[in-house]
DNA sequence: AAGACAGACAACCGCGACCGG
DNA sequence: ACCGGTCGCGGTTGTCTGTCT
């Protein structure tokens, strides 16, 4: 039931592949190729459906498969790519030679679970912890994380450029280092990942029960950003988190990190999971049009940002939350 | 030593896209 | 334009294995 037409025949074996089956498939593919997968099982003498053969070949038997643990570079790349394209594993896999979408998907899912299993916030900030949404299953958490990922289909064609440039950014993207911009990012190119294991205390203005009730996540993140000494925890071991804003789409870049409190993350915020990319000039134009307080405008629905001069208040957050499709992230930013 | 548990990995399932008739 | 077959993708489940109690 529910099988594909190619799998409807009787005697179709399922489950794990035996070494003999593997050998048959390898022998057939290497001598004949796999023009039509639906014909492969019969011609190869396998009692499998073509789909199963294809999967087995692509995910396991292919000669160029690269097995073993993911390297730190691969991890960084996966994280960056996932933040850009979301759960498009095949697309991500296409940028990691020898890795399969299935492998990356499995890796990501287990990695997500690992991260989520960490307590959301330390016991020292129980008010924030209790304000977080209930965490029940890894699946729902992954879905919640997915919600934070910005749909980025429009920029997909720019992926290669983004990767090659962003991952090659220098460790710090200071204000004076505007010579390696990810200039191909579109005008609206928010990017953000976070780790809820950060341990911070929220500012008093955000710890009221009402604010927590209404803005659990934003309250938390904003509080995290505001905390003295705040530093995004690494999403990948050994890789510092960082943030950056920069012009994109207009060819002019202003990059900065070093949020107050010593966020000394690497500028490739997109490489290590903390960051925001936003077209600065367009942002200014929008602010002129909208006014500083109107964050729920349609044009801001996919923005995730912190702001140079916008004070973080519950009302701001409320407006942001109501208008955000992806995620908004904002707070006073006092870099130069 | 044995059972419970969690993580890693393999495989399946359903759906949508594509293509040729 | 429609339809059926095929393929590719992403989500989900199943299984194995290592670790902990």
UniProtKB/TrEMBL annotation:
Secretion signal span: none
A GO cellular component entry from the record: nucleus
Disordered, as annotated region: 255-295
Keywords: DNA-binding, Nucleus, Repeat, Transcription, Transcription regulation
Top-level taxon of the source organism: Eukaryota
A Pfam match: Myb_DNA-binding
Domain HTH myb-type: 9-61, 62-116
InterPro entries (UniProt xref): Homeodomain-like_sf (IPR009057), Myb_dom (IPR017930), Plant_SW-associated_TFs (IPR051953), SANT/Myb (IPR001005)
Boundaries of every Myb-like domain copy: 9-61, 62-112
SUPFAM superfamilies to which the protein is assigned, alphabetical: Homeodomain-like
Main location: nucleus
GO molecular function: DNA binding
Subcellular localization, as worded in the UniProt entry: Nucleus
UniProt-listed CDD domains: SANT (cd00167)
Listed name of the protein: Uncharacterized protein
Organism, scientific name: Panicum virgatum (Blackwell switchgrass)
